[in-house]
Amino acid sequence: MSYNESQFDYYDxxxxxxxxxxxxxxxxxAQIIFIVALTSWVIWAGLHHSRPTLAHDVIAFENSDPRxxxxxxSITRRDASAEVICTLTARDFDKNIVxxxxxxxxxxxxxxxxxxxxxxRADAVNVGVARCRIR
Length: 135
What we know:
By secondary structure, the chain is α+β, with helices and mostly antiparallel strands. It has two domains: 10-50; 54-134, Immunoglobulin-like (Sandwich). It has two helices and six strands; from the N terminus they run H-H-E-E-E-E-E-E. A three-stranded antiparallel β-sheet has the order 1-2-5, with no helix packed on it. Strands 4-3-6 form a three-stranded antiparallel β-sheet, with no helix packed on it.
């Protein structure tokens, strides 16, 4: 039997009307809407998270006296009029907290660098900023 296009047509076989052009257009429109929404969300997320409300970084610490280690850290805040409280911790060799203080940073400039001594009950090995929060 010879091949005849009128006998075997995929569009008739699978029930597609008018060669599928209307369904292709609706799929293309849905894809474009999805891509625009996704691109908008990525741009918003990038801009929102690139400048957080509050950020802190440990610059250095000195442990010449293990009972009174010194930490130097910086704070960057979006709102310079906000007071910030940072919890600073000192840990021993087994990672137990042996000293902890709350450091209050008064309103002022957006970027602040602080040097603080943390008194401990045992010899400390390292220090760090546990968290910072706006008061």
